[in-house]
Amino acid sequence: DAKTTQPTSMDCAEGRAANLPCNHSTISGNEYVYWYRQIHSQGPQYIIHGLKNNETNEMASLIITEDRKSSTLILPHATLRDTAVYYCIVRVSGSNYKLTFGKGTLLTVNP
Amino acid sequence: EPEVTQTPSHQVTQMGQEVILRCVPISNHLYFYWYRQILGQKVEFLVSFYNNEISEKSEIFDDQFSVERPDGSNFTLKIRSTKLEDSAMYFCASSVRGAYYNEQFFGPGTRLTVL
After folding, report:
1. pLDDT by residue (tens digit) across B23-60?
2. Which of A29, A99, B64, B105 is most deeply buried (CB count within 10 A of its CB)?
3. Cβ-Cβ contacts under 8 Å, A60 against chain B
4. Left if phi > 0, otherwise alpha if psi is -120 to 50, otherwise beta: which for A2?
């Protein structure tokens, strides 16, 4: 399994960009990077995923380094409702199905 | 926007009783999943289901657990004889595909409390 490392917590001011890092130095060539978030006790919510190119959708941008050993999730204009635990997940090698959640990063957006 | 729904939102049961947690996945999705989250802990994978068969299960998913798709819309998780340690949030999820490049969409969860 490709292991991910994320900071335990981060703070961000409302209206500013939130940049959440993730290290996945053992990622293999065909493994995707996924980001999910979980707002207090709710079901995890899919945000974005990518393989090697940078990706953007209506929620966020995903920047993956050229060597694919790390990535950054960017919330361009964080709001109070973006306060959540953010999970960086690399699809488990040998498993086509499950998502393996770590402890994630608790992002707190402050007014 | 289509979403995964789960019922009930909260289930309280006595130890040793059977419970059935229900989920309605997104209608065009083909892969279904159950996860659980014990209070304060990580979200843990339980089982995935495709084409009326279990495609993968974790060590947690022992003989006390079973899943079923009884009709074209519902997906259920049954716990035959609940234990105190089964108390957790149970999340259902579904996806269009099951391969690497899929997004799983989660329901709001059922909070199971075993007394």
Report:
1. 999 998 989 999 999 999 999 999 999 989 999 999 99
2. A99
3. none
4. beta
